[in-house]
Amino acid sequence: LATALTNLFPIFVLGAAVWALVHPAAFAWFDNKTAITPALAVTMLGMGISLTFDDFKRVLATPGCIFAGFALQYTVMPLMAYAVSRLMALPLPYTIGLCIVGSCPGGTASNVVTYLARADVTLSVAMTTASTLGAVVATPLLTQLLLGTLVPSEHTHISTVVAMQVVLVPVLLGAALNTAFPKQVAALAPLSALSAVVLIALICGSVMAQNAAAVMQAGPQLLAAVFVLHAGGFFLGYALSKLLGIPERAARTNSIEVGMQNSVLGALLASVHFPAHPVAAVPCAISACMHSILGSLLAAFWRTR
Fold it and tell me: Where are the transmembrane segments (predicted)?
């Protein structure tokens, strides 16, 4: 039953997003301050119990995949964001938001999608960590290049600390528990994927609910732009990885890492550094749900192959 429900991941995520738009108050209890960060940490703990420290040794022994993912993250998505915003002639506030999303590091939800897709979770965690650390320099420089405005690195520093708390520490703790109590962990393992699905759906619904009015006013043009950005990221992340000769499992991981961004960080940067354009955060809110929906569909497809 748990496996069957897990395979319905896309329906859970899409359903949560639609319900949040129709009835935002339904997600009022699940907000960023009290629920989202702990939920992500618990989810990553569940990912960690499927890993061992030997997995980390294996990934670190082949740093080429991590470097390739890092390079794709900070070239494909920023360039895609700029190109899409120009080709679709987006208004300035939406261009700002889309370019900020494209300049952000990989999102923590990518680790969950990687797990559900049966790709390389350890590589995904390593890549998310690397891109988050790199964001302290890369994100301000990319926003300067794309928008002509230097976004200070203070908030990317904050994002780095949060990412360590939400991603690296829970995953390492999970791996330690798997090493110390393998039998007990094996009994819990079937529930970890299902709990990840439920929590990601709740997070997606919460983000959409908090921005429901602005999203409804944004119109189909912005929805299409965000869709093209993330769909292009997933496709190019996979295609370019294969061209580089990266193995299938790692190529799938790269696809997910490139296609999914830290949209919450993007919303924060847009709100703080572009106060004259309050709707600049709207593309980030749409992005948070869009990449989860597309990622969940991709995970459901790859999970059976």
Answer: 7-29, 35-53, 65-84, 90-109, 121-142, 162-181, 188-209, 221-244, 256-274, 280-302
Question: Rounded CA gap, 256 and 184, in Å?
Answer: 30
Rounded Cα gap, residues 11 and 281, in angstroms: 26
pLDDT on residue 226: 98
Per-state percent for the chain, helix, strand, coil, to nearest 5: 85, 0, 15
At 109-137, the pLDDT tens digits run: 888 899 889 899 999 989 988 888 888 88
Q: Which two tokens stand for residue 188?
A: 């819990």
Q: Six-digit token pair at 170?
A: 């829970």
Domains of the chain: 34-303 (1.20.1530.20)
The H or E element containing residue 137 is helix 121-147
Count of C-beta atoms within a 10 Å radius of residue 113: 31
Residue 255 contacts residue 241 (beta carbons within 8 Å): yes
Tokens 């759906």 sit at which residue?
201
What one-character DSSP code corresponds to residue 264? Answer: H
Average pLDDT over residues 249-258: 96
The candidate with the shortest Cα–Cα distance to 299, out of 72, 69, 111, is 111
* Strand, coil or helix: 129: helix
**Main-chain phi, psi angles of 261, to 5 degrees:** -110, 165
The amino acid occupying position 60 is L
Distances (CA, A) of 258 to 66, 98, 173, 238: 12, 15, 26, 9
Cα distance between residue 260 and residue 100, in whole Å: 13
Measured distance CA(239)–CA(128) in Å, rounded:
20
Nearest Cα to Cα of residue 238 among 194, 301, 304, 288 = 301
